[in-house]
Design a protein that fits this description.
Rossmann fold; seven-stranded mixed beta sheet; globular; alpha/beta
Length: 217
Amino acid sequence: MRMRKKKHGAERIEACAELRIADPATMLKGFDKIFGNDRPVHMEIGCGKGNFACGMAKKYPDVNFIAVERVADVCCIALEKAKAAADERESDNLRFLIGDAKILAENVKPHSLDCIYLTFSDPWPKKGHAKRRLTHRGFLEIYKNLLTDDGILRLKTDNVGLFDFSLEEFEAVGATVLWQTRDLHASEKNADNVMTEYEKNFSEKGFSICSAHVKFN
């Protein structure tokens, strides 16, 4: 469902300017220029309303987080949520970028991210839309270039079709699946799991969550 356009959205986004990377090219200067430190940098691509990004930034104050969302009206909600919860974070370690995942290839230094999260990405179920899926090999090649040698891609989805497609794409690009499950909340890793708003809603309805941790060779 398409989100209704936010009233005064541009003004509301501007009111959260301290949390936003307005110019993607700024990242090419180095994340230390953005955060003022050289801590590890994790990126969520498709952050939605920001529950996961805000939760992770609060839980891991020694890690810097960048949350990317292509829909400005959706990111507006995430920005306002992050600003309202700023006092709950021990460090100033969260920023948002409004833009498509494709722009990352030209605006992020190679091998500068320690982790990339894909949390409940649009499954684009039509066969003809496969290249739009964030786990399509075209995007995977981008992630491979952005992650450090020890960097990890972490995927969460409730869509079994997307999960199966993703496993095939990981194999196609020669990536190694370090861990996977089709029921995250029943797994040993659930204790450290930070849920997205979407994940919370669907898990409460009894849906299982698929997850995989992947390393590029």
